[in-house]
Amino acid sequence: MKKAVHHYQIAAMMGHVYARHNLACTEADNGNYQRGMKHFMISAKCGLKDSLNNVQEGFADGHVTKEEFEKTLRDYQAACDQTKSEQRDRAAIIAASERE
Fold first, then answer.
1. Cα distance between residue 92 and residue 2, in whole Å
2. What pLDDT, on the 0 to 100 scale, is given for residue 86?
3. How far apart are CA 47 and CA 36, in angstroms?
4. N or C, fewer C-beta in 10 Å, the chain?
5. SS3 state of residue 6
6. CA of 72: how far to CAs of 18, 25, 43, 58, 69, in Å?
7. What is the pTM of this model?
8. Could you give the 3-state DSSP secondary structure of residue 42?
């Protein structure tokens, strides 16, 4: 497990969002809730919905303050807004119509 955590840390430092999320899960599983929540907040800021859900659970459990949760929510929304475009919307409509 130490090797996996080490590789998650390296990947997270290089910007891999899912590695940061997995590192947060590992930290939380080991009882390091504050550290885990910080990692979840960073990956949620990059637009990862699963991390945002975990921050929301952390808020409900008292591991995240209201201010931290609100900031994470704003950052998540900003990341999602940056990825929106008309071209992506059209592609999603086409993909949905092809599945039918």
1. 40
2. 85
3. 17
4. C
5. helix
6. 17, 17, 10, 12, 5
7. 0.82
8. helix
Q: Which residue has the tokens 């950052």?
A: 75
Does residue 65 contact residue 95 with C-beta atoms inside 8 Å? no
The predicted model gives 60-75 an average pLDDT of 96
Residue recorded with tokens 């960073």: 42
Cα separation of the two ends of the chain: 44
Query: Residue 83, CB half-sphere, CA atoms under 13 Å: how many?
Result: 9
Read off the pLDDT of residues 18-51 as tens digits, 9 standing for 90 and up: 999 999 999 999 999 999 999 999 999 999 999 9
Q: How many CA atoms lie within 13 A of 20 on its CB side?
A: 22
Mean of per-residue pLDDT scores for the chain: 92
69-85: buried (b, 16+ CB within 10 Å) or exposed (e) per residue?
A: beebeebbeebeeeeee
